[in-house]
């Protein structure tokens, strides 16, 4: 017997304008007014900026002002460079590069919504018919589940920071949601057309962040087909169509890059090497990472998703559990088989977990829902209050201890009152209290009531941080100030600069100060920008790396918020 009994009153869909407004409130703060931050965010922006101001070779061989970057894939960088090309004159390069990030986020949310909607209106997902009628219609039921899945997705802690970065990871999670949607459409109606569209998503994923993940997810897709009454020959034909279309999409970059050899390099060889390095045997390190980070990274999706598997365990082969579970299992294997597990690998699990969690909400008891609501109200309201207290303290100096604690993180920073940021934060806080009052006073019976406060509260915290404390974060995480100091010390005859700085630093210095770094093919430069630790008291670092050359120090500095990192500018004298 199905574990769900639900009246039609519980399937009231969230108004379209409210869902759209919630998405904008989620994605826009943290993109507007924010500098490129160390590390991956600034490095990715540097590749986009280099493409915009470079030649065709930079589009085929991604690099950061001459520093080669053959990892991952070029799709996210192409989108950012194209955004700067089209909108840079209006929005500025930094914000224009994030137009692609906004577009990718919208694609991910829409794909997740439609994937859940199509699964939710299937006959095997419908609740039991009530004795006197009043059960929801299939489309209404699907819409409500889709709204719940989006709210859960937006409430996941792991998505919050990564979705606001101009990195391939932000694009990868959205394309994973797109592939999940195309998989749902394929299992609903197996056809050559749906197989080809799934292949398109696989090809885009390959261009975004390598072929390992899309190939494994394609295997998950075909693991789901064993529950379909489909001849093996037809399944193999569809698999061939997916591989062919995905290969054609990936060939848009790989074929020209291999034939034209930009900067006399072989992108395909370097890219394949990076891909193979993403696989290894599972280790105890990867297992510990998965459970230690996953507990908060997947919150609040994973408890509801686990409950969904348990609640529907007696319904064999229901596709609303089988399809997302296949993606989750494959994502877990990818994380455990990664030699150096990172949070970017966990992003692949968020869309399928959100879908499963929506179906888990169907069977959660009212008492558990009320407990989640009260916890969300108390915890998130307390967090918001603490943020407001620290903001007030940094401006006024009272409470003294709070002011001292917040300002010691950004030594040398002078706080100023930003009226626009203040009113946006105030409006968001008032909106939070309106939402809490509506939830408590109305006691709505709709399915998504269990997660609306969690998602809304998380968005409130993010808005407060990205308005009240955005200047602090820019001061502490941006290299703009250091870049301008270096630019002021450059000799007039500077032709190029050798350096050992990292990708984020190189990108920031190239953008903010237009430092002429040596290109991909290298060259002999008369200046050297050295990055090392402030703990090194003499010139041993430069002597070790550039032995036999004579250098004179022109400038030394660092970011005030960084207690170890140091930069030194030298001029060659030999």
From TrEMBL:
<dbReference type="InterPro" id="IPR050297">
    <property type="entry name" value="LipidA_mod_glycosyltrf_83"/>
</dbReference>
<keyword id="KW-0472">Membrane</keyword>
<feature type="transmembrane region" description="Helical">
    <location>
        <begin position="241"/>
        <end position="261"/>
    </location>
</feature>
<feature type="transmembrane region" description="Helical">
    <location>
        <begin position="346"/>
        <end position="364"/>
    </location>
</feature>
<feature type="transmembrane region" description="Helical">
    <location>
        <begin position="371"/>
        <end position="391"/>
    </location>
</feature>
<keyword id="KW-1003">Cell membrane</keyword>
<feature type="transmembrane region" description="Helical">
    <location>
        <begin position="289"/>
        <end position="310"/>
    </location>
</feature>
<feature type="transmembrane region" description="Helical">
    <location>
        <begin position="102"/>
        <end position="120"/>
    </location>
</feature>
<feature type="transmembrane region" description="Helical">
    <location>
        <begin position="450"/>
        <end position="470"/>
    </location>
</feature>
<feature type="transmembrane region" description="Helical">
    <location>
        <begin position="317"/>
        <end position="334"/>
    </location>
</feature>
<keyword id="KW-0328">Glycosyltransferase</keyword>
<protein>
    <submittedName>
        <fullName>Glycosyltransferase</fullName>
    </submittedName>
</protein>
<keyword id="KW-1133">Transmembrane helix</keyword>
<keyword id="KW-0812">Transmembrane</keyword>
<feature type="transmembrane region" description="Helical">
    <location>
        <begin position="6"/>
        <end position="28"/>
    </location>
</feature>
<keyword id="KW-0808">Transferase</keyword>
<feature type="transmembrane region" description="Helical">
    <location>
        <begin position="417"/>
        <end position="438"/>
    </location>
</feature>
């Amino acid at each position: 017997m199905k574990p769900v009994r639900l009246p039609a009153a519980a399937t009231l869909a969230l108004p379209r304008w409210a869902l759209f407004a919630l998405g904008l409130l989620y994605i826009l703060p943290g993109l507007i007014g924010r500098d490129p931050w160390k590390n991956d965010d600034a490095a990715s922006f540097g590749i986009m900026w280099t493409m915009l101001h470079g030649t065709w070779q930079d589009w085929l061989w991604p690099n950061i002002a001459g520093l080669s970057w053959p990892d991952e894939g070029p799709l996210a960088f192409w989108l950012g460079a194209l955004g700067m090309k089209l909108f840079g004159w209006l929005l500025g390069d930094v914000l224009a590069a994030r137009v692609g990030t906004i577009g990718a986020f919208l694609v991910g949310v829409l794909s997740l919504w439609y994937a859940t909607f199509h699964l939710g209106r299937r006959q095997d997902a419908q609740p039991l018919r009530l004795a006197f009628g009043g059960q929801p219609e299939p489309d209404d039921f699907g819409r409500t589940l889709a709204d719940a899945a989006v709210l859960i997705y937006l409430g996941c802690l792991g998505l919050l920071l990564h979705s606001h970065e101009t990195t391939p990871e932000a694009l990868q999670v959205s394309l994973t949601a797109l592939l999940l949607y195309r998989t749902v459409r394929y299992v609903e109606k197996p056809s050559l057309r749906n197989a080809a569209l799934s292949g398109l998503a696989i090809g885009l994923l390959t261009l975004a962040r390598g072929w390992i993940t899309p190939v494994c997810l394609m295997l998950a897709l075909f693991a789901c087909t064993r529950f379909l009454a489909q001849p093996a020959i037809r399944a193999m034909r569809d698999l061939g169509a997916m591989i062919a279309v995905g290969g054609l999409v990936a060939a848009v970059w790989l074929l020209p890059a291999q034939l034209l050899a930009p900067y006399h390099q072989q992108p395909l060889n370097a890219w394949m090497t990076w891909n193979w390095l993403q696989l290894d045997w599972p280790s105890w390190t990867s297992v510990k990472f998965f459970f230690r980070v996953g507990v908060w990274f997947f919150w609040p999706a994973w408890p509801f998703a686990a409950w969904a598997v348990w609640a529907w365990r007696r319904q064999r082969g229901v596709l609303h559990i089988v399809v997302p579970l296949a993606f989750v299992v494959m994502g877990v294997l990818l994380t455990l088989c990664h030699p150096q597990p990172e949070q970017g690998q966990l992003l692949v699990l968020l869309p399928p977990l959100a879908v499963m969690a929506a179906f888990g909400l169907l069977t959660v008891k009212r008492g558990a829902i009320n407990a989640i609501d009260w916890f969300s109200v108390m915890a998130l309201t307390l967090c918001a209050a603490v943020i407001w207290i620290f903001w007030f303290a940094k401006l006024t100096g009272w409470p003294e201890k709070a002011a001292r604690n917040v300002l010691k993180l950004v030594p040398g920073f002078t706080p100023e009152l930003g009226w626009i940021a203040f009113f946006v934060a105030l409006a968001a806080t008032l909106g939070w209290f309106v939402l809490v009052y509506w939830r408590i006073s109305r006691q709505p019976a709709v399915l998504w009531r269990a997660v609306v406060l969690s998602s809304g509260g998380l968005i409130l915290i993010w808005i407060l941080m990205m308005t009240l404390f955005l200047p602090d974060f820019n001061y502490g995480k941006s290299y703009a100030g250091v870049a301008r100091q270096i630019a002021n010390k450059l000799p007039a005859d500077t032709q190029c600069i050798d350096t050992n700085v990292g990708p984020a630093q190189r990108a920031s210095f190239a953008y903010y100060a237009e430092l002429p770094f040596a290109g991909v093919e290298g060259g002999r430069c008369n200046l050297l920008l050295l990055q090392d630790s402030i703990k090194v008291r003499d010139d041993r670092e430069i002597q070790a790396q550039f032995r036999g050359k004579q250098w004179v120090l022109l400038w030394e500095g660092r970011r005030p918020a960084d207690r170890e990192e140091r930069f030194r500018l030298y001029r060659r004298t030999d």
